[in-house]
Amino acid sequence: MYRLVMSEKFSFSEVAAMDLDTLLEANAALDIHIEQENKRNKKK
C-alpha cells in the first residue's frame, strides 16, 4: 500500500479507497512503469 504512495503516483487517500483488486492492479502497473523507466535509462 505504502509503495504506491511513496512512488508519488497516488495519494494516500486514493490508495486507502482502493479495493484489493484495484490495489493489486495499481501495484502491477507501477512495476511495469518502473521497468520501462529502467530500460529507458539504460539506453542513455
Plain-language structure description:
With 44 residues, the chain is mainly α. The protein has one domain (2-43). Helix content is 77%, strand content 0%. The protein has helices spanning 2-6, 12-16, 20-43. The longest helix has 24 residues, at 20-43. It starts with a helix and ends with a helix. 0% of the residues are buried.
Task: Record keyword descriptors for this entry.
mainly alpha; 44 residues
Structural class: mainly alpha
N to C succession of SSEs:
HHH
Spatial shape: elongated
What is the gyration radius calculated from CA atoms?
A: 12 Å
Mean pLDDT value: 94
Please, how many helices? 3
Instruction: Kindly report how far apart the N and C termini lie.
Output: 31 Å
Number of domains: 1
Count of beta strands: 0
The largest sheet is: none
Summarize it.
The chain has helices at 2-6, 12-16, 20-43. The longest helix has 24 residues, at 20-43. The chain has 44 residues and is mainly α.
Give a topology summary.
Layout: H1 2-6, H2 12-16, H3 20-43
